[in-house]
Amino acid sequence: MDRPIHKTNSGQIKVVLNGEKRNVPDKDNEILFPDIYERKIPSQHVALKEIEDELSALVGLDSMKKVIKEIYAWIYINKKREEKNIKAERQGLHMMFKGNPGTGKTTVARLIGKLFLKMGVLPKGHLIEAERADLVGEYIGHTAQKTRELIKKAMGGILFIDEAYSLGRGGEKDFGKEAIDSLVKHMEDKQHEFVLILAGYSKEMDFFLTLNPGLQSRFPLVISFPDYTIDQLMEIADMMLEEREYILSHNAKIKLKDHLGFIKATQTTFSNGRYVRNIIEKAIRAQAMRLLLDNSYERNELITLKSRDLGLNDDH
Description:
It is a single chain. The protein is an alpha/beta fold. It contains 12 helices and 10 strands. Belongs to the CbxX/CfxQ family.
């Protein structure tokens, strides 16, 4: 959640937040916001520290790590306000994740559930994953029934709907619109009993928000998941390989990096970590077949994936 910040001549900092310019005190001429997320969290915040440790094991997601801290701080301070008999309004925590596949949206949703469980925000903190087929029925009334059943399963935890924009893709007789209306109603009636996270491509999700006038205001947290850089994708590949006890040969590394650069430059949609995983799993199968035919089972051969195993054409 990066915020443009500019010093003013009046000893204040100008912050652009949610499209609104605000002046805040600049104590001792220090810029407060750029490094506030880098400061060490006090030791008593064990729940946040545990989630941060899990997030730190993930590649990228720097903005998401900041958002997690903000959400934790907001909930924690609200509890402190309640203890001092200060008004603490309960804000809805429904979220929208926007980005291409394979950018960590489901993983982050699961970690948020764990954090909310540790903080007492959600009594279960479990994650229910769903898609269009789990919500949309085949006849009048069936969709509302399926949606109710799904939300019942998610009570006390998080309902995560991937490719949520697909609910609005049908025509006039499609029941996807009924699913959207039903979700909006339950978000209002049970807004503090479960958390709804909708995920999907950025442009499609922006259109999705226009399908029901109540949608936009019910998602106070809209978080973007950017595509991974080439270096981050290679880091993800290394992590996947290490977990499986494989390595890439020198030439295989060069070939994979070159291929990822070409794909990112030429494809409008890209599945990021999922794409890398598919390449590695396919390469492992190809290596197994090669070793079987070569009757070669030395340790170094068993752990090394070679350029030919990747199955990537040099001319792309």
